[in-house]
Amino acid sequence: MTDPLAPALILLPGMDGTGELFQPLIAALGGRFELIVLRYPSDQPLDYPALESLVRQALPQTRPFVVLGESFSGPIAVAIAATNTPLLKGLVLCCTFVRNPRPRLGRLSFLLKLLPLARAPLGPISRVLLGSYATPALHQALSQAVAQVTPRVMQARLRAVVAVDVSQALAASRVPVLYLRASQDFLVPASASETVASLRPDAQIVTLDGPHCLLQAAPDPAAQHLTRFLQSVS
Predict the structure, then answer these.
(1) I want to staple 212 with a disulfide (CB 3.0 to 4.6 A). Which of 101, 128, 187, 201 is the partner?
(2) Domain boundaries, the chain
(3) What are the pLDDT digits (tens) for 79-132?
(4) CATH for 8-232?
């Protein structure tokens, strides 16, 4: 039964932008909270400001909410939190960053324009995102999500990650922050969560056993921490 006192949970997806990979987490939460899963256009190469604008238009106007930014969407969630709107009660960041988590890539950003627009093979992507936690079901879900997004859009999102920096926005936010970190994240290093902690010393940093796709591979422990956080900000 949905908790009528708890804020709604707005789920902002990873780089695929489909929102479909939230299904394991949704099942683990068991209907206890109102969930709003947002989806990004799969055929429009939008940058962070444009995607943030789309998200803002979809936010609840009359009831409290918490925003969860997974991976690619972390900077969008942070930008929204920086406005400190009264209806926003908390910010959850999962395996994400406030600025380019791989700074060396920034110096090679011009190469992103030269990347082939053909779809990358899923095998290497799955190994990076799921590692040893991969299962046939997770691999299939990842494959189906990635297949919906044009290579041009993926390329644009990679360029956005290279250039992003919402450090000041996070420092300006006042809502409670929960950061879920994966113990075996081969994509976003631990330094990303350390940056969050330095900007918001009051943030809760929780490390869970799992890969970069933490909400997919470890939905139950993630749901437990989310439940406690949502109840604490009710």
Answers:
(1) 187
(2) 8-232
(3) 999 998 999 999 999 999 999 998 876 654 544 554 444 565 667 788 889 999
(4) 3.40.50.1820
